[in-house]
Amino acid sequence: MNYRFTNARIVCPEGGERTGSLHVSDDAIVADGDGEAIDLGGKLLAPAIVDLGVFATDKAAFAKGGIARIGLMPDQSPVLDDPGIVQRAAAMGKPELWVHPIAAATKGLDGLDLAEMAIFAEAGARAVATGRRWIADSGVMRRVMGYARDCGLTLIIHAEDSGLTNGAVATEGETATRLGLPAAPAIAEALAVARDLALAEETGAAIHFRQVTTAGALDLIRRAKARGIAVTCGITPPHLYLSDIDISDYRTFARLSPPLRSEADRQAAREALGDGTIDVLCSGHDPRGPEEKRLPFADSAPGSAGAETLLALGLGLVRDEVVSIERLFALLSANPGRILGLDTGTLRPGKPADLIMVDPDSPWRISADAMAASAGNTPFDGLPVQGKVLQLWKGGVRIR
Amino acid sequence: MSASDHNPGAVLNGSEAFPHRHLTGIAGLQPHEITFLLDEAERWAQANRARQPSDHRLDGITQINAFFENSTRTLLSFEIAGKRLGADVVNMAVAQSSVKKGETLIDTAMTLNAMRSDVIVIRHSSSGAVQLIASKVDCPVLNAGDGWHEHPTQALLDALTIRRRRGSVHGQRVVICGDLMHSRVARSNILALTALSAEVRVVAPSTLMPPAIEAMGVTAFSDFDAALEGADVVMMLRLQNERMSGAFIPSTREYHLRYGLTPERLARAKEDALVMHPGPMNRGVEIASSVADHPERSAINEQVEMGVAVRMACLDILTRKARGVEGWA
User: Fold this and answer.
1) Chain A contacts of B186, Cβ < 8 Å?
2) Residues in chain A closer than 8 A to B106 (CB atoms)
3) Contact by Cβ (8 Å): A137, A111
4) How far is A373 from chain B (nearest CA, A)?
5) Contact A301/A370 with Cβ under 8 angstroms?
6) Contacts 24+ apart (CB under 8 A), A35-38
7) pLDDT for B61
8) Shared fold status for B20-150+306-323 and B152-299
9) Which partner for A236 in A152, A284, B2, B130 could form a disulfide, CB atoms 3.0-4.6 Å apart?
10) Count helices and strands in chain B by DSSP H and E runs
């Protein structure tokens, strides 16, 4: 089918913003053509979101959030460390949701032995990852990076020095002290980032820190980029909107990994999002039911269901003038697509017609009870936001 | 004094004096509410000393002591307090191994709730667990210690002991020394004593000092001797066995060298300074026997005595609404 989306406010991370029409022929964006006209009435037309580093294939939540592709973390049951499992993961969401598996970088994610990265890549893996954990052994990490580089795969890293974070459920500070929670110093992140940057520089590996949340670590990455090291990094909305004060009252929906940081770190993260240090805004989607969240804080599982709030919270950053609208879609679509080696994330002719139509001003209130996700564990319960996905298209087919 | 003198309606402005449904911590209490609890406990302390027969105000009230963490003294203290007021006291000792984590905690809370208990006393090893249970049950909940978070009745009994022995808490220089990091006793005491305008100094090696503790209105020291200068009260914390070797302190003898309360060290405090310890003590580690047993200076046995009085006051006050006491409905 051919379509013409007319009267659209078109936002492309590479082409900028313009008002007019976009043409689609079959599954791709084309420069010109005819076909069924769809009048968008001035609404936003943008590349569909590529959500890099999620923990569940939660189709309903991703569709509601305008997410057409996900980079699935290897921390599944079973772990993505077998070609058959990788292949099955890659196929499980089609056609509505394209799942791009991120395979385990070490066997069983145990941080000890190299996994079969080349075989996983053949099976459809788009990157490899350390999983939810950091690889503490520097010798192992050096070999993992060298081997990932040989295989042409980006290594996705969870950056927290486990010697400092072992047993911790919060960031050291007044809140954790008052609540009597085991806490780790924020420097645990900078220490991990510093080591892995040094190893990346030496091995020539391409690395991506899935979440960087502290001023110290962001500063290291800013300087590493200036030196030309192949590093990128991401963040999720909670670390841009919330700080450790939000775990007061032991709200387990605000128990995250890495934990919420100080207000100063939150401000530094917003600044780093604005100045280009941070490359990816992702949901970290990790739905957790009451059996894992309705517990004492330290006994509960970390993580939040973020897929369907990602875009609205991202648009909030545009309204707060932290980022421009083009840059928002670089963070949500183009950059994560590039890191996964996908030919998507922009509206250039020839690219797949993965599109979202958005009413950026439409108000709604985030409600844990009304979420499409398999669990409603959002730390933003009750927050009024603006921006709704009206339509989601994947490869020229309307999904929502 | 007879039991009838305890009729609260005659003396107090009813629930305005203590408008809380639960006692989950000292945090959230106003200074006058803490003083109210201490005043009430003081009356029970006098009644207990006078060996008055049991009061019967909690007749027909079911008190469940649900202890998810081992305890001997606190459990006994709550049991005696309840029984002296006539309550039917049931102890539920839940070993951490059988009811560990998961939905089980909420399930247990719902079970207790379904049994129509009138007041539940809870101890649990996770910070915030008591608050979580309190949010799920219909009756008042009393925190008997949650993780590293709070142990409010301990702080109240300590404040009462200080008030009785020093005349007032206001303006007293109180030195709290030991494993502050893992201590709910320390957190509750800091909150209660600073609310009552004491000057609180905390002392620990940096490995056992909670970060940003000064934000709670205290002065932090790593040098015990310096902290002791001019102290009115020296409160020693128990060093848990599992933290005695290696990870946090090199050895008990090194700990004793730097943080043990010896007679020589105590001489730096005021001549009549009070020595306190929440028990059970490690004699020869955090406190020398001659200090712990000092007839004038040590208030350790009085702390245990005040514990019963404070818990009687809390059980009485938290059940007033359910008992339909005038002014508390």
Assistant:
1) none
2) 294-295
3) yes
4) 21
5) no
6) A35/A1, A35/A2, A35/A3, A35/A4, A36/A1, A36/A2, A36/A3, A36/A4, A37/A3, A37/A4, A37/A6, A38/A3, A38/A4, A38/A5, A38/A6
7) 96
8) yes
9) A284
10) 12, 9
Three-state DSSP class for A245?
helix
* CA–CA gap between residue B284 and residue B262 (Å, rounded): 9
Closest CA to B189 of B234, B230, B226: B234
Write the CA distances from B292 to B7, B103, B173, integer angstroms: 38, 43, 20
> Domain B152-299 adopts which CATH fold?
Rossmann fold (3.40.50)
For helices B184-195 and B152-166, what crossing angle results, to 10°?
A: 50
C-beta separation of A379 from A64 below 8 A: no
Give the residues across from B298 on adjacent strands: B275
CATH number of B20-150+306-323: 3.40.50.1370
Q: Which residues contact A264 (CB under 8 A, 6 or more apart)?
A: A215
Whether residue B150 and residue A180 make contact (CB cut-off 8 A), yes or no, is: yes
Q: Could you give the CA distance from residue B42 to residue B49 in angstroms, rounded to a whole number?
A: 11
C-beta neighbour count of A112 within 10 angstroms:
11
pTM (2 decimals)? 0.94
Q: From CA B78, how far away is CA B311, in angstroms rounded?
A: 6
Ordered by start, the domain boundaries in chain A are: 50-344+363-381
**Helical spans, DSSP H, in chain A:** 59-64, 83-91, 117-123, 138-150, 162-165, 174-179, 187-203, 215-226, 237-241, 263-275, 290-293, 310-319, 325-329, 335-339
Would you list the domain boundaries of chain B?
A: 20-150+306-323, 152-299
- Give percent helix, percent strand, percent coil of chain A, each to the nearest 5: 35, 25, 40
What phi, psi does A223 have (nearest 5°)?
A: -70, -35
Of A180, A185, A291, the CB nearest to B184: A180
- The CATH number of the structural domain formed by A50-344+363-381 is 3.20.20.140
| Interface check B215 vs A, CB under 8 A | yes
First to last CA, chain B: 26
Among A177, A291, A297, beta carbon nearest to B210 = A177
Q: What is the H or E stretch that residue B134 is in?
A: helix B129-134
The span from the CA of A244 to the CA of A229, in Å, is 31
Q: Select from B103, B106, B148 the Cβ nearest to the Cβ of A180.
A: B148
Smallest CA–CA separation between B220 and chain A, in Å?
14
Distance CA A34, CA B269 (A): 91
Q: Closest CB to A297: pick one of B106, B127, B150.
A: B127
Under 8 Å CB pairs connecting chains A and B tally to: 72
Contact list in A for residue B103 (CB cut-off 8 A) is 290-291, 294-295
Contact B63, B89 (CB under 8 A): yes
Q: Which of A181, A263, A299, A300 to mutate to test the interface with B (most CBs of B within 10 A)?
A: A299
Report the pLDDT averaged over residues B301-313. Answer: 98
The predicted-structure confidence for A282-317, as pLDDT tens digits, reads as follows 999 999 999 899 999 999 999 999 999 999 999 999
Query: B3 pLDDT exceeds 70?
Result: no
Is the model's pLDDT at A278 over the cut of 70? Answer: yes
DSSP labels for A5-60? EEEEEEEETTTEEEEEEEEEETTEEESS--SEEEE-TT-EEEEPEEEEEES---HH
Residue-wise pLDDT for B91-127, tens only, equals 987 765 455 554 578 888 888 899 999 999 999 999 9
- For range B54-83, the mean pLDDT: 94
- Nearest residue to A4 (alpha-carbon basis) of A18, A20, A22, A26: A22
Interstrand relation of A67-72 and A49-54 (parallel, antiparallel or unpaired): parallel
Phi and psi, residue A289, nearest 5°: -80, 175
